[in-house]
Design goal:
The complex is a heterodimer. By secondary structure, chain A is of the alpha+beta class. Chain A has one domain: Phosphoribosylformylglycinamidine synthase subunit PurS (Mth169, Chain: A). In chain A, 33% of the residues lie in helices and 27% in strands. Chain B is α/β, with parallel strands linked by helices. Chain B has one domain: Class I glutamine amidotransferase (GATase) domain (Rossmann fold, 3-Layer(aba) Sandwich). Chain B is built from 7 helices and 11 strands. The two termini of chain B are 19 Å apart. The chains are: A alpha+beta, B alpha/beta. At the A-B interface, α1 of A face loops of B.
């Protein structure tokens, strides 16, 4: 199965990168921009099937390593599970 | 009194920290490799600055899972002293040994300069009586912008866990926070570099008084030696 983990700065945490990218988008003519947040995507390819146990392990890894819950949120998409 | 300086792949202030404690303070100091599972009976563990594991994913995110960090956690839980400088501070936050997190500077610029820092009344090992009202220490970081939620900030302030604040905020840190300690008072973290402020050719020698203050919690005699 293929998993995409999306990690984004928490809504109430300042995102200096997002602010800078937003300014650049506006300077390139984008109108009506209300917010820009820059995060990251981690793609995993795993042999095996989706299961509640696997989800529990994946959630733990997302909390412990792939994101920092103090400043970031995460969600993921699983395909081919 | 034994000092251990950790070395991760990508640490680059390990030698500066080593010399602060060995030549600057004349204390027995040794390196501990990140794959070691013991801190070798050290009294103070220094987590040095640099770019551990390339700072991939987030600063300190991967270093916190290296074998030696298990030993550092046990050492801290026994009440042992820990000092994280710059990337070391980021690692201690990622490891949950200190609260909060450090994100990209609000300017998005890497800031390399000497900063005036206001010393806070942060308990018996870190206060204006030991250190003075202000110190001047170099910083060099791109991710020194301290963040914590409102409840966490309130806890830091009411427990007097803030060690140092920037006189002029260089990175957007919440409440100009430059360094904190844990609630118990034995784990210290700061973005400024005491390890770059002790030789005559350094911009200041205030690193010595900061290092002595941290050690004074367990070894009060270190203050007499400096008098």
């Amino acid at each position: 199965m293929k998993i995409k983990v999306f990690v984004t700065p928490k809504k109430n945490v300042l995102d200096p990168q997002g602010v800078a990218v937003g300014h650049a988008l506006e300077s390139l003519g984008l109108g009506g921009l209300k917010g820009t947040r820059v995060g990251k995507v981690v793609e995993l390819e795993i042999e095996g099937a989706d299961s509640p146990q696997f989800r529990a392990q994946l959630d733990k890894l997302c909390r412990d390593l792939l994101s920092n819950p103090v400043i970031e949120d995460y969600h993921y998409e699983i395909a081919g599970g | 009194m034994n000092i251990a300086v950790l070395q991760f792949p990508g640490s680059n202030c390990d030698q500066d920290a080593f010399h602060l404690f060995s030549s600057g303070l004349g204390l027995p100091t040794s390196y501990v490799w990140h794959k070691d599972t013991s801190v070798g009976g050290a009294d103070l563990v220094v987590v040095p600055g640099g770019f551990s594991y390339g700072d991939y994913l987030r600063c300190g995110a991967i270093a916190r899972f290296s074998p030696v960090m298990g030993a550092v956690r046990e050492h801290a839980e026994r009440g042992g002293l820990v000092l994280g400088i710059c990337n070391g501070f980021q690692i201690l936050c990622e490891a949950g040994l200190l609260p909060g997190a450090l994100i990209r500077n609000s300017s998005l610029e890497y800031r390399c300069m000497t900063c005036e820092l206001v010393v806070e009344e942060a308990g018996p090992a870190f206060n204006t009586r030991l250190i003075g009202k202000r110190v001047s220490l170099p910083i060099g970081h791109g991710e020194g912008n301290f963040r914590i939620d409102a409840a966490g900030l309130e806890r830091l302030e009411s427990n007097h866990q803030v060690l140092l604040r920037y006189a002029e905020n260089p990175n957007g840190s919440l409440s100009s926070i430059a360094g904190i300690r844990n609630e118990e008072g034995n784990v210290f973290g700061m973005m400024p570099h005491p390890d770059r402020a002790f030789e005559r050719f350094h911009p200041s020698q205030d690193g010595l008084v900061v290092a002595r203050a941290v050690l004074s919690l367990r070894f009060p005699e270190i203050l007499r030696e400096s008098a």
